[in-house]
Amino acid sequence: MHQFIKLKSSRLKTLLPLSFIGVVALGGVFAWYSLGDNRGYAPDQPIPFSHKRHAGDNKIPCQYCHSDVDKSRHATIPSMNVCMNCHSVIRQDSPSIQKMKQLIEQGGSFEWVKVHDMADFVFFNHKRHIAQGIACETCHGNVGEMVKVEQKEKFNMGFCVNCHRDNPLNPELKASTNCNTCHH
Ligand code: HEC
Ligand code: HEC
Ligand code: HEC
Ligand code: HEC
Ligand code: HEC
After folding, report:
1. Residue 55 class from Cβ within 10 Å (0-12 exposed, 13-18 middle, 19+ buried)?
2. How many domains does one find in the chain?
3. 170 occurs within a structural domain
4. Tens digit of pLDDT for each residue in 118-171?
5. What residues make up the domain containing 132?
6. Does 151 lie in the same domain as 176?
7. Confidence of residue 172 (pLDDT cuts 50, 70, 90)
């Protein structure tokens, strides 16, 4: 009996740390899989800027504001001067617009919170994709319906490589799947 308990407890002593390692490893695996999955991320912005209101209801083209998207790697967020092209006249009564004008007079500008933020070890280039006629919606969802921008796609390796291997928009055009296309 005494022997048995001893055996059991010594087993427990080895089993406990093992299961602890197991739990940690499992947690690690979950963390690994969820890494970079920011679907649904929709942070609050310094003022409630609505894409639905601008790009949707009022049909302002995406590139009116994101003017570098077809010229460079980055889409760029518009400067406050772009906003004032319209808001020096439109909706002077709105507290948000008044807040914006005040900030500009003080020489400041809003610090928009980044929605999409891919890992630094991945290289992405808007220009190359826009030149191939790939719509914003393919990667960003229907932004014109969003009151608050939300990440729609999981920007993991599969999302990028699947289209590079089999471009559904143009099967003739296969983009590179070499590792150094996206990692360099
Ligand atoms: C009137 C100007 C304006 C128009 C038009 C506009 N945007 Fe934006 N966009 C902004 C501003 C300002 C931000 C930053 C604040 C925010 O995220 O809401 C932004 C943010 C974004 C973001 C998130 C950027 C990030 O941080 O990851 C995406 C994606 C985006 N816009 C796509 C689009 C698309 C697609 C269209 C057309 C359907 C469009 N935008 C039209 C002004 C505009
Ligand atoms: C092939 C996929 C793809 C397409 C098409 C695409 N984007 Fe993006 N966009 C991304 C990715 C990926 C990021 C995040 C980049 C990063 O974090 O380095 C991003 C980020 C952004 C940002 C944040 C600023 C920046 O450049 O990092 C804005 C604004 C944006 N996109 C607007 C647009 C607009 C407007 C269009 C259409 C004219 C468009 N995107 C088309 C994948 C795409
Ligand atoms: C091409 C013209 C145009 C540009 C550029 C523009 N807006 Fe607007 N904005 C509008 C229109 C039109 C409305 C809707 C007015 C209404 O509903 O009465 C609006 C509404 C708004 C509202 C809602 C006001 C409220 O209290 O209901 C905010 C906030 C706003 N815009 C912020 C911005 C910001 C920030 C920028 C720059 C990133 C910007 N706008 C650029 C035309 C524009
Ligand atoms: C819907 C299809 C599609 C998606 C999604 C897509 N790509 Fe692409 N990608 C293309 C096409 C088509 C080209 C253009 C090939 C060309 O110009 O010859 C391209 C080109 C590129 C290039 C330039 C290659 C070069 O030779 O300079 C890079 C880098 C790139 N993609 C990275 C990415 C990354 C990172 C993602 C994911 C965030 C992504 N792509 C998502 C279709 C796609
Ligand atoms: C079309 C673009 C693209 C190509 C080609 C590509 N990758 Fe990736 N890779 C990505 C993206 C996007 C991620 C995810 C980054 C994140 O999670 O934020 C990634 C992530 C990774 C990671 C980190 C682990 C993970 O899965 O998140 C490794 C390692 C990696 N890639 C290796 C490779 C190797 C090796 C090749 C060549 C066989 C390759 N990649 C080709 C876009 C690409």
Report:
1. buried
2. 2
3. yes
4. 999 999 999 999 999 999 999 999 999 999 999 999 999 999 999 999 877 777
5. 49-77+112-182
6. yes
7. confident
Measured from the Cα of 65, ligand 2's closest atom is 35
Q: Is residue 105 part of a domain?
A: no
Same domain? 72 vs 18: no
Q: Which of 67, 115, 118, 140 to mutate to test the pocket of ligand 2 (most atoms within 8 A of CB)?
A: 140
Would the CB of 157 count as within 6 Å of ligand 5? yes
Ligand 5 atom 21: residue of nearest CA: 157
Whole-number Å distance, alpha carbon 164 to ligand 4 midpoint, is 6
How far apart, in Å, are the Cα atoms of 136 and each of 94, 112, 120, 127, 140?
30, 20, 21, 12, 6
Taking CA atoms only, the protein residue closest to ligand 3 atom 9 is 54
Indicate whether 6 and 66 sit together in one domain. Answer: no
Q: Are residues 119 and 61 in the same domain?
A: yes
Q: What is the dihedral of CA 132, 113, 161, 36, to 10 degrees?
A: -170
Which tens digits make up the pLDDT trace of 6-45? Answer: 444 444 444 444 444 444 444 444 444 455 578 999 999 9
Q: CA of 182: how far to CAs of 46, 50, 105, in Å? A: 33, 32, 42
Say whether both 116 and 31 belong to one domain. Answer: no
The answer to the question of residue 89 being in a domain is: no
Q: How far is the CA of 6 from the centre of ligand 1 (A)?
A: 66
61 within domain boundaries: yes
